[in-house]
Design goal:
Layout (H helix, E strand, L loop, with lengths): L2 H17 L14 H10 L4 E2 H8 L3 H13 L3 E4 L2 E4 L1 H23 L3 H22 L1 E5 L4 H17 L18 E7 L2 E12 L2 E9 L8 H15 L4 E6 L4 H9 L3 E3 L10 E12 L6 E6 L3 H4 L11
Parallel strand pairs: 7-8
Antiparallel strand pairs: 1-3, 2-3, 4-5, 5-6, 6-7, 8-10, 9-10, 10-11
Organism: Actinoplanes italicus
Pfam families: Acetyltransf_1 (PF00583)
InterPro entries: Acyl_CoA_acyltransferase, Bact_Acetyltransf, GNAT_dom, WH-like_DNA-bd_sf, WH_DNA-bd_sf
């Protein structure tokens, strides 16, 4: 990570917050700072609870309570236990906030050509995708984790629709059969992806059930999960990883081939694993900046890949 990159991101953040007027205590000309105005928006007409607001906005609980107390003191919200709701004055203020915000953005866009507006919107969408990708947390969880099993249930339901022959959920790896690590990807508290590996034999493992929720696709999360599984396997003495998949899963096929996996002959009696792949993990080196491991890998030819490995049933 370059110092110049950090400086440029910080410079953009300073410019953007200043351009939107977020630094003043009279955001959009109203008699309150941006934080309180944002809370009026988030509480909305249906109200909200303090835990939801805290988690959604990433605010310290004491700070959040202080801002809500300030809004309550202005007669804009009422607090009942942990629930906040807008008063009539609060709803009027929120409607005015919406109108001012829309007018401000319209004025900004009005100074641009049609092409510039398109470029701005496209750039903002790309920034959002990249920031979402950076914010997704990938962590190891127990195989019987309810969140992980919920992900696998969604995975099985999707495959049941995707595969012409359907998908039998009973073929999912049971928690007691996970001899390696199960990873879960979480975005803002919501599970959005999973994957696991199990041991097949000495130094050989299989990656299974690599899945990303539809709402989180396009963020590079599949590659992130695959890479983390490879790192974890290598750090646990695995030299070779295998996986099987179905021809209908074209995006998965592109991911595996683009990640250095070679096509090999079938090694599983699971009917959905109609294509099989293998990759050799040469070394695992701790990354000093983050404490994470980085795997350097090379592919093994299909003819050599079938030697010396004990295989068992496989699932994607």
């Amino acid at each position: 990570m370059e110092v110049e990159q950090i400086a440029r991101v910080r410079d953009f953040n300073r410019y953007y917050t200043q351009r939107l007027g977020m630094l003043t205590d009279r955001f959009l000309g109203q008699d309150r700072p941006f934080g309180q105005a944002r809370l009026l928006f988030e509480i909305g007409d249906g109200g909200s609870t303090l835990p939801v607001l805290r988690d959604r906005l990433g605010l310290d609980e004491d700070y959040l309570r202080g801002q809500l107390d300030a809004l309550a003191g202005q007669g804009l919200i009422v607090l009942a236990g942990t629930r906040a709701a807008l008063t009539d004055a609060g709803r009027t203020e929120r409607a005015d906030l919406e109108q001012r915000s829309n007018a401000g953005i319209a004025a900004l866009l009005g100074e641009l050509t049609a092409g510039q507006r398109d470029r701005l919107i496209a750039a903002q969408e790309e920034i959002r995708r990249v920031l979402r990708a950076a914010a997704v947390v990938v962590e190891a969880v127990p195989p019987d984790s309810p969140a992980a099993r919920g992900c696998l249930a969604r995975y099985a339901a999707e495959l049941d629709v995707t595969f012409p022959e359907g998908f039998d959920a009973s073929t999912l790896t049971r928690p007691e059969d996970v001899t390696g690590t199960q990873l879960l990807a979480v975005e803002e508290g919501v599970p959005v992806g999973c994957g696991l590996w199990i041991r097949l034999g000495p130094g050989v493992a299989e990656i299974r059930h690599l899945w990303v929720a539809p709402e989180a696709r396009g963020l590079g999360l599949g590659r992130k999960l695959l890479g983390r599984l490879e790192v974890d396997a290598a750090n646990n003495g695995i030299a070779t990883v295998r996986l099987g998949t179905h021809p209908r899963l074209t995006e998965a096929l592109a991911l595996y081939r683009g990640s250095g996996y070679d096509d090999i002959g079938g090694y599983s009696d699971i009917p959905y694993n109609q294509l099989a792949f293998e990759k050799v993990l040469v070394s695992a080196v701790a990354a000093p900046a983050t404490g994470r491991a980085a795997v350097t890998s090379r592919s093994l030819s299909a003819s050599a890949s079938r030697r010396g490995a004990t295989a068992s049933g496989s699932r994607r």
